[in-house]
């Protein structure tokens, strides 16, 4: 209580202190409801660029009905302003409030876990729920608390300032490395978005996903986690090195590398080894297992948090539970992937198969949303749906083997359309068309 009153009193005495309070505190972090409501009014005044002092705050708390009478409001505000121990120690008071709030969260989480343990017979579900609660507290989030709009407005203002400032690239979407695709996706991969990348087998969807992963990890220095349920880690690395070193995938399989190939391979390996890419080839992995592995990396203070997650591919995943049908299981998986993207605040790219309908009874084999295999919930839960298409896959004589299309069929944040790409099958990589022509 003393720390809460000291912080509020300091805001009345020294307006310059308010920005650091707003940055580190939220109204729900105050133990006393009255103190939290006063802080909400300070935030509101600060957000509207109004002066914050004894007179303006007194009028604000009166209008908000926080105190029964004007005299009661005057007495309390005067008391907290007069009893501030030291303005220079405000950071310490803020830290105390935050620590006590986290302890209360832990107490509530422990109580909830005990209650769930008496009702939930599934140990895996209990572990996932408990781990999630602790992770949210550690991350500074509280999924159980209602958030006042004043707090969200502050966050929105801060975000707008970030994306309009000199370092705005840091706060916009994560660039995929494909210029025209990034433009269509309004800056790249949106944080907390679920992107579905779908294509028929052999169209290059794994290669495209690995190209994005390499671009993000190498050029943007953002950690990427790749969960491959089909290929081994060795196979993934061979694909990545083939693309990055410019060595044909055939040479990787046969071991027929020239002296130059070994030099290119050494350079590419050195660069990639410094990047933060994590590979996992656990077959039949479940979403709780993925989240646990991501959290273990994120909780290591010596490592930056995972920024992008890639899953290859959706139809090989399992919920770990019995379901009535495969369609129902895929629906649950896509819904939980979207939840995971939101909880971790990272983009998730999930690869998906297409049904054979794209190849039957149609002269134009370009995929459509209705071709997504197993469930309509894939389209429903996804923020973006991308299809890969190469005409030469169907017509080797007429189609240009070096050309590909990335069809943005759904885009929750922008336009839909087609992006032309260049396909280099020998090195399993896609590039921007202009870049390929310049080369």
Tell me briefly what this model is.
This protein is of the alpha/beta class.
Please give a handful of descriptors for the protein shown.
9 strands; disordered C terminus; 12% strand; alpha/beta; single chain; 18 helices; nine-stranded mixed β-sheet; 439 residues
What does this structure look like?
This protein is an alpha/beta fold and 439 residues long. Helix content is 50%, strand content 12%. It has 18 helices and nine strands. It has helices at residues 2-13, 18-24, 33-47, 54-63, 70-82, 90-119, 123-138, 149-163, 179-184, 205-219, 233-245, 249-254, 259-274, 287-298, 326-344, 377-381, 391-394, 433-438, and strands at residues 194-199, 224-228, 277-280, 308-312, 348-353, 384-389, 403-411, 417-424, 429-432. It has a nine-stranded mixed sheet with strand order 3-2-4-5-1-6-7-8-9. The longest helix has 30 residues, at 90-119. Residues 435-439 have low confidence and may be disordered.
Layout of helices and strands, plus pairs?
Elements: H1 2-13, H2 18-24, H3 33-47, H4 54-63, H5 70-82, H6 90-119, H7 123-138, H8 149-163, H9 179-184, E1 194-199, H10 205-219, E2 224-228, H11 233-245, H12 249-254, H13 259-274, E3 277-280, H14 287-298, E4 308-312, H15 326-344, E5 348-353, H16 377-381, E6 384-389, H17 391-394, E7 403-411, E8 417-424, E9 429-432, H18 433-438
Parallel strand pairs: 1-5, 1-6, 2-3, 2-4, 4-5
Antiparallel strand pairs: 6-7, 7-8, 8-9
């Amino acid at each position: 209580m003393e720390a809460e009153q000291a912080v509020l009193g300091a805001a009345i005495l020294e307006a310059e202190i308010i920005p650091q309070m707003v940055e580190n505190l939220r109204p729900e972090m105050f133990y006393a409801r009255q103190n939290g409501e006063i802080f909400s009014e300070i935030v509101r005044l600060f957000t509207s660029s109004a002066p914050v002092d004894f007179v303006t705050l007194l009028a604000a708390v009166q209008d908000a009905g926080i105190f029964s009478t004007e005299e009661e409001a005057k007495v309390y505000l005067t008391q907290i302003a007069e009893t501030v121990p030291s303005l220079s120690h405000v950071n310490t008071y803020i830290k105390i409030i935050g620590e006590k709030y986290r302890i209360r969260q832990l107490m509530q989480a422990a109580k909830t876990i005990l209650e769930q343990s008496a009702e939930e017979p599934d140990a895996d579900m209990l572990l996932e729920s408990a781990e999630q609660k602790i992770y949210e507290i550690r991350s500074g989030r509280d999924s159980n608390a209602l958030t006042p709009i004043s707090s969200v407005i502050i966050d929105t203002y801060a975000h707008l300032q970030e994306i309009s400032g000199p370092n705005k690239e840091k706060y916009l979407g994560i660039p995929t490395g494909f210029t025209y695709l990034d433009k269509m996706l309004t800056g790249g991969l949106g944080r907390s978005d679920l992107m579905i990348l779908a294509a028929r087998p052999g169209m290059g969807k794994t290669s495209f996903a690995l190209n994005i992963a390499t671009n993000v990890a190498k050029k943007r220095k953002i950690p990427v986690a790749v969960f491959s349920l089909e290929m081994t880690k060795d196979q993934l690395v061979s694909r990545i090195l083939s693309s990055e070193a410019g060595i044909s995938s055939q040479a990787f399989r046969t071991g027929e590398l020239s002296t130059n190939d070994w030099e290119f391979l050494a350079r590419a390996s050195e660069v990639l080894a410094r990047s933060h890419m994590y590979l996992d080839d656990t077959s039949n992995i479940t979403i709780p297992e993925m989240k646990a592995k991501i959290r273990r990396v994120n909780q290591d203070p010596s490592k930056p948090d995972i920024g992008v997650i890639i899953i290859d591919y959706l139809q090989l995943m399992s919920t770990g539970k019995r379901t009535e049908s495969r369609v129902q299981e895929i629906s649950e998986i896509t819904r939980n992937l979207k939840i995971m993207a939101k909880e971790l605040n990272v983009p998730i790219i999930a690869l998906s198969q297409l049904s054979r309908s794209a190849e039957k009874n149609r002269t134009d084999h370009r995929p459509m949303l209705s071709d997504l295999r197993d469930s309509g919930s894939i389209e429903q839960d996804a923020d973006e749906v991308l299809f890969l298409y190469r005409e030469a896959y169907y017509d080797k004589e007429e189609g240009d083997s070096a050309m590909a299309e990335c069809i943005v069929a759904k885009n929750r944040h922008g336009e839909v359309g087609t992006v032309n790409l260049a396909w280099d099958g020998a090195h399993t990589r896609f590039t921007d068309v202009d870049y390929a022509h310049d080369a």
